[in-house]
């Protein structure tokens, strides 16, 4: 801000004085903080109206009562008691909600592990093996373009490959590995995990790549010069420095899978229960307080996972 | 490069190639299958080649009222794109100075990005239901609903596109040289002139990138629309509805048409960005290179 003005001040003080008075008369009309408010205000209002207030309503409505066809704005814990029905009575067996969450967390862990593995090596390849900036841009773009296309289409796209008479089954039969088409390829937990990995590895690649390109290449050379093997460099230099990206990518992937109901719905043939799916089912049954109670539970669990992970890294510093 | 690449390069290059094949292969399969003959089924091998299923879609004899949903999605996409660009650029400018609510806005954006879509969508639908009930109780008994494409639907999409817009603005201004703007002001430019003639031309390629995110994310949005869009359906919602009853290549044809729009927008945006970058380079300006 002040460097150029300082230099001007020394050489020609009159000009600076002139421009300062001009600026002061402007400043009298709009102070910098008012300008900031005008610039950031509209976005803040959108988040207030369509994100923060709706969240508050979710919490409030989760404590309302309901009957078959409408909301009753009176305090009630029914949304929660209905949700946890049988959880204590059925012990040691798991109740429906606990089973659903166990299954959802299983999807989370599987998808997280696979996307992390793929995302890490794709980012590593782009960041360390591609030397030309143009190629780096081009290949990153190649990974990004599918993200700009429809998720549902990318799910449907598996049908001709994995279906009963799909490419995979007919290929396996032709080779002679199987006699009957394999049924579990489509509309199964397998296809759900496959589709989630297919759709969301992108969220792992981008932050890890961002962390990796910032790593000073001379650090890696120094490690080699000091006699480290490739594996030692990877574990002791690259992974620690790429950790912020790994954590941010992990937060993205885990929160997406936790709340997913579309991929699990479409790829699971609408037969697999999941945390997000319960909310959708309750809404379709017009049981809004129960839906809201489930949303609050999901929100709390998601928030706990994020807090645990962000202990490892300061998100704001990394962006 | 003459000394040869390490073996790990080739291993990872193959890994990368397989990943790209994994990304694009299935998509290409359905684009191809949507050009089958009238007897075509859902899987390979193809049963003849024709544009039967695509033209069936456009004649409106197919499964959904494609035209109406298409127009709705296009309208919403364009409104979301413009709003995202304007609000993100404005807020991005604000973040270059310190201001009071800075961290509230930042954390709202991040939270909006990672709170599961179904929760945001449910919240918006509850909010609008409660507003409707209030209007019915106090002002107008015959009131239908305030939920709709350009009210709750627009809001739901913005909670998804604005965080991306804001993060892209952060990335832009991280490598923006503020001295350029100062120089403009020292030459007597008003803040608006400095923005219009100095800042905007430099950041324009990235601003088009924000527009690209705004449109494509809205055009394909599903999770947030699901509860918040009201009585009408967007194209992705229609498509999702079809997945449970799919028996013929109709659904592939619809997928191909939706993707065609996405790819047109992506090509236009990337082409424009490329031309702008070329022009910036050709005109010999070193604008924006200060800190790179």
Folded structure, characterized:
The complex is a heterodimer of chains A (319) and B (292). Chain A contains 17 helices and two strands. Chain A is mainly α and 319 residues long. In chain A, helix 5 (96-129) packs parallel to helix 10 (189-200) and helix 15 runs antiparallel to helix 16. Chain A is globular and about 70 Å long. By secondary structure, chain B is mainly α. In chain B, 71% of the residues lie in helices and 0% in strands. Chain B has helices spanning 7-33, 52-59, 66-94, 102-114, 117-138, 149-174, 178-186, 191-219, 225-228, 235-242, 250-282. In chain B, helix 5 crosses helix 6 (149-174). The two termini of chain B are 25 Å apart. The relative contact order of chain B is 0.14. At the A-B interface, helix 1, helix 3, helix 5, helix 6 and helix 7 of A face helix 1, helix 3, helix 4, helix 5 and helix 6 of B.
Characterize the largest beta sheet of chain B: strand count, sense, and whether it forms a barrel.
none
Q: In order across it, which strands form the biggest sheet of chain A?
A: 1-2
Which ranges of chain A are low-confidence, i.e. pLDDT below 50, for 5 or more consecutive residues? 1-18
The count of helical stretches of chain B stands at: 11
Shape of chain B: globular
Report helical residue fraction of chain B.
over 70%
Percent strand of chain A equals: under 5%
Largest interface: A-B, 95 and 102 residues
SSE pattern of chain B: HHHHHHHHHHH
Secondary structural class of chain B: mainly alpha
- Please state the average pLDDT score of chain A: 85
What distance lies between the first and last C-alpha atoms of chain B, to the nearest angstrom?
A: 25 Å
Proportion of helical residues of chain A: over 70%
Strand tally of chain A is: 2
Oligomer: heterodimer
Would you tell me the structural class of the helices and strands of chain A? mainly alpha
Mean pLDDT of chain B: 86
